[in-house]
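Thread: Newbie trying to understand structure tokens

Hi all, I'm a second-year student working on a class project, and my supervisor (Dr. K.) asked me to get a predicted structure for one chain before our next meeting. I've only ever worked with sequences, so writing a 3D structure as a token string is new to me. If someone could post the tokens and maybe explain what I'm looking at, I'd be very grateful. Here's the chain:
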Amino acid sequence: MQQEEPSRFGFESTAAEVAAGVDLHGKVAVVTGASGGLGAETARVLASRGAQVVLAARDVAKAEGVATAIRAGIAGAKVEVGAVELGSLPSIRSFAAATLARHPAIHLLINNAGVMACPLARTEQGFESQFGTNHLGHFLLTGLLLPALRAAATSRVVCVSSSGHRFGPVNLDDPNYERRPYDKWESYGQAKTANIWHAIELDRREQAHGVRAFAIHPGMIVTELGRHLTDDDRKALLARVTEAAKSAGATATPSASRWKSAEQGAATQVWAATAPELAGRGGLYCEDCHIAGPSPNLAAPSGYAPWALDADAATKLWTLSEKLVGASFA
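---
Reply by user tm_fold:
Sure, no problem. This is what the structure looks like when written as tokens:
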């Protein structure tokens, strides 16, 4: 895919700015990880544009607090909370069944929740936690909600990936680190690559049904996603980005401004979900509220890695994911 011209929005844009003028009345949106951070801001902005928003979260009490705040700040806001643990396949099935019963048509699904660079752990079904939560949990949820996404006539799925996908592709032979040493950043990279592959294969399969899918990099934001990171991890990550910009010949941005606020971090996923200019498109990787192109090299500060849009690998991951979660989505 060739580099495209940036949209009128960019790094500094907020979710509210990119959604301004968009009418979502009569639309239903599901946002995972909506108990705080980018998920909460995404839910707030979508509700402000008239959408009925389902806040899907593991911590129901926190999500209820977010819902209360949204209702207090937005007159007539329609928000509800649903409990889901993305590391538990039964929990995902229960949430999906309840959501389908209430909402036969879903127009927007924002797969926002995730974990980042955590110590080796396993989900309820034994999957490595980053791959299991970030990818497999969302894969099953999306598949189960497909009837409602199709029923909406036109719908969008946004898979929140990361520039961290450049830490590596998915190891299709051992995605759960059963036969190789665990590395938290390599694991994060494959989970975020999996998010991209999920989006492009979903888009390929479902566009004939009016379902389009996007993968996005939100930027670097201090949220609960980084709860497992030490101060040294954060400093090293920021140094990596700064050095990458320099080595790629880009103008170095002062360190303090490399981090986005939650309002800015939620912008790209809201843009991918609502931008009129993306109508009829999909299977794309977006960053800073525009469609990204290939990265000139892995040290560059932006763009996607050579393996990111590997359609054959995406198809293989889909087949593997169906096997792992015990479900088939034709």
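A couple of things are worth pointing out once you decode it. Confidence is low (pLDDT under 50) at residues 243-257. The domain at 15-229+261-318 is CATH 3.40.50.720 (Rossmann fold). Feel free to ask follow-ups in this thread.
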